[in-house]
Protein: Zf-HC2 domain-containing protein
Organism: Nonomuraea terrae
Amino acid sequence: MEAQNASDDHWSDHWARLDAFLQTDPRDAGCDEAMEMLDVYAELLAAGNDPSERFPGVHAHFLACDPCAQDLAGLLSALRGPAPSRPDSP
Ligand SMILES: [Zn+2]
């Protein structure tokens, strides 16, 4: 075993961050716009619509930004009610 493993870990973390940065969708609307559209976006989702076509930039942001995605998930579960284990299905 070589002692270089530790520095490999350091660099792989570094590259993972760089990778995530490079993979950011160019359409990404950013946190401000995502928060502005959060209510509308969640209501469309809760109503069974697909807001990603109407708001591709916001959709891209929710895919890329964990904090905003969690805000969306929280609002969505609030809109949908307290029974996530048994969603309405045909
Ligand atoms: Zn965000």
Q: What stands out?
A: The first helix runs from residue 5 to 22. The pocket of zinc ion is lined by residues 31, 34, 61, 65, 67-68 (CB under 6 Å).
